[in-house]
Write a structure and sequence with these properties.
The chain contains twelve helices and six strands. By secondary structure, the protein is of the alpha/beta class. Strands 1-2-3 form a three-stranded mixed β-sheet, covered by helices on one side. Strands 4-5-6 form a three-stranded mixed β-sheet. A hairpin with a 5-residue loop joins strand 1 and strand 2.
Length: about 400
């Protein structure tokens, strides 16, 4: 079904980096989400009112919220697809995160209302009439929710959309709630006990937890979270595939919404390379990565000396640093000639965990280098990583 929908309604569906294609994916997901959730809602609401089940009515209301979430995701894709303008030169991609926060607030409100109603049902229990029709409706709702979850997650991962992934995860959590209600109906019928209110509390808690997950993901994206290791590896692999690039470091990725990434990186080149050739190379890298990966990249050229003295010291210090902590690294090592002697200068990359100890760590490495040769002065510039998995 997923393949049929994609091939039918999305032209050039493989070109997910294209903003128009991405918008069409988001629009399709939103429309499908609204339709499926409304169908489930109508079925559960009708049967829930007929048999007097607060848990079933709660689940129906929950699906109204899910339909609203799909509608919000549809609107978020519409807003984020607006082209950059004079007031917003980086585009409107972060609108998707803002809409995700609105969705989370709706989930919180729904959860609180259902929790209050469910507690009232526990305090004042009302018999729930068992119906085979109700049981079948719940099973069908579970099947549709499992498919919808798979559909939304698949497209969310395909186009890197946090709101679709969140909706897919939330849809999957609905299956547990709906399943518990179906079991509750059966248990209540077989053992003549009223657990409807308790099941309503369970549904309310699941809705609240889903809202928390959506809020956490959206706020993390707005604040600036760490890019995935897969994304970092793909960028570094792309850049280092060019002849003349000796290495990279200092990658920083700025997220202005899915599909709208700006990044900066240090590209290491041979210091003997002609300056015009070096500039032409990094220009080509910036142009190619924008066309192929959709990233607006700014590169800083780091010229590396390849003389024997520099290479020898780099290997020695690199081994010391790696022995101290495998996650540390060094870059831009230079031997500088000054009036009062030679200076070994390099950048030291630290993890966030060890960043608070940077002064002691720098002092330790200076001592190690002076133990090898005290004639050299040492100038260490400490930095921490901004990208997951970068070295």
């Amino acid at each position: 079904m997923e393949r049929f929908l994609i091939h039918t309604f999305i032209k050039d569906h493989t070109n997910v980096e294209d903003q128009e294609v991405r918008y069409n994916y988001g629009r399709l997901s939103g429309i499908v989400g609204v339709i499926v959730n409304l169908l489930i809602c109508i079925g559960e609401l009708i049967v829930g009112l007929l048999i007097g089940s607060i848990a079933m009515i709660s689940d129906a209301v929950h699906n109204v919220a899910d339909a609203g979430g799909s509608l919000i995701s549809l609107l978020s894709f519409k807003f984020s697809n607006i082209r950059p303008d004079e007031s917003h030169p980086y585009g409107h991609g972060r609108a998707e995160y803002l809409f995700s926060i609105v969705f989370s607030i709706i989930l919180f409100v729904v959860a609180i209302q259902l929790l209050q109603e469910s507690i009232n049902r526990i305090l004042h229990p009302t018999p729930v009439e068992f119906s085979i029709v109700a049981f079948i409706v719940m099973i069908m709702a579970m099947v549709l929710k499992v498919w919808l979850s798979s559909f939304l997650k698949s497209i969310g991962n395909k186009i890197n959309s946090p709101i679709l992934i969140a909706n897919g995860t939330e849809s999957l959590s609905d299956v547990a709630a709906t399943g518990s209600i179906a079991i509750g109906l059966l248990v209540g019928y077989l053992f003549d006990v009223s657990i409807d209110g308790y099941l309503g509390v369970l549904v309310a808690c699941l809705i609240g937890f889903a809202g928390f997950r959506v809020l956490k993901e959206a706020t993390s994206c707005i604040l600036g979270n760490e890019p995935s290791k897969e994304r970092v590896d793909a960028i570094i692999k792309f850049i280092t595939s060019y002849d003349g690039v000796l290495g990279t470091h200092g990658l920083m990725i700025h997220d202005y919404g899915p599909g709208k990434e700006f990044a900066s990186i240090h590209v290491e080149l041979n210091a003997a390379m002609d300056m015009i050739d070096a500039h032409t190379l990094v220009d080509r890298i910036e142009r190619d990565i924008r066309n192929e990966m959709g990233i607006v990249l700014t590169t800083h050229m780091d010229p590396l000396n390849r003389d024997k003295e520099t290479i020898r010291w780099f290997n020695k210090i690199h081994n010391i640093v790696k022995a101290y902590n495998q996650d540390f690294d060094i870059h831009d090592l230079r031997i500088l000639e000054q009036n009062d002697g030679k200076v070994i200068s390099f950048d030291l990359m630290l993890t966030f965990k060890e960043w608070k100890h940077k002064e002691q760590i720098i002092e330790f490495f200076v001592t190690c280098i002076h133990t090898i040769n005290s004639d050299y002065k040492v100038d260490i510039h400490a930095h921490h990583y901004y990208a997951n998995g970068e070295e």
